[in-house]
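Extended Data, panel c. Modelled sequence:
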Amino acid sequence: MPRKRCTKIQRFVDPNSAAWVTFAPGVTLQVLAQPVPEGSIHRAKLSAGTTIPAHTHPCDEFVEVVRGAVETGGRLCEAGTFWITPAGTRQGPHVAKTDVELLTIRLGPTGTFGE
């Protein structure tokens, strides 16, 4: 029986190939992929001193600190720290103690801030 050929290919995103967009003052995002409708895998950079107010997302979110230090959930999270926030869970504020880079996987829509 002939072998079925896969027509899918790997896709690579080089660090400088995807545009960074301003999300809020002191916060830029680089969207890497959309794993589910309205979801995203993205890099986020927060400038030192930036605060993202407390908020919720209507979906699960997974975050790793790539570099720097951010305070969230009453804890100082440094490079290598990974956290999981279930859908509907109030989180933050996120306070950048240094310049910070995060890798975030959000499995659905962002929702609204300032709740």
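The mean pLDDT is 90. This feature is highlighted in the accompanying rendering.
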